Amino acid sequence: MEVGKQLRAVRTAFGLSQRELAKRAGVTNGMVSLIEQDRVSPSVGSLQKILAALPMTMAEFFTRDMESAGNVIFRAEELPDVGAGEIQYRLVAASRRDRQMSILWETYAPDTDTGEDLLTHSGEEGGVVVEGELEVTVAGKTWILGPGDAYYFDSLLPHRFRNTGKKPARIVSANTPPSI
Predict the structure, then answer these.
(1) Is the pTM of this model over 0.70?
(2) Cα dist. 10→18, 50, 86, 96, 101 in Å?
(3) How would you class 97 by CB atoms within 10 Å of its CB: exposed for 0-12, middle for 13-18, buried for 19 or more?
(4) What is the pLDDT of residue 65?
(5) Among 71, 107, 73, CA closest to 90
(6) Which residues, in sequence order, are CB contacts of 135 under 8 Å at separation 6+?
(7) What SS3 string covers 96-153?
(8) pLDDT (0 to 100) of residue 43
(9) What is the Cβ-side half-sphere exposure of residue 151, based on CA atoms within 13 angstroms?
(10) Sequence-separated (6 or more) residues with CB below 8 Å from residue 13
């Protein structure tokens, strides 16, 4: 691993200049600069001191892949449809191995639903209706949501979604841990 390249990537990800990082860590600006240029190899103590200013552990520093974290924008055509039938679930960041949540752009055609059987799984989920109407049933209670309305609940509670309207219902939702 190129320590200098990784330090530069971490520092810029945290939005810090070399000078600001050096000030926070109590080291010279020159030291940070030389490390980033791979002109000097920092001692373990010096690197720990610098990383503590971020804050980041040595383990995180050496195992974090800053370059793969660079893909932060996902265009509409890049979102794979992981739904079935007339329900579309377009998954954001599907290729990220380290996702901690699922973010979906959902489209329910008129008169479609997630099925007669209520869903249950670990975690939490929430969403906002962007367009159309969505019937949300959670733990035996049912609501009709319209544009701007939102939901959030413990996913262990039995739940179901259904479009009761005459036009597609579009929702942006998230759940954690990722179930898709």
Answers:
(1) no
(2) 11, 11, 43, 19, 23
(3) exposed
(4) 62
(5) 107
(6) 113, 142, 143, 144, 145, 161, 162, 163, 164
(7) CCCCCCEEEEEEECCCCECCCCCECCCCEEEEEEEECCEEEEECCEEEEECCCCEEEE
(8) 87
(9) 26
(10) 66, 69
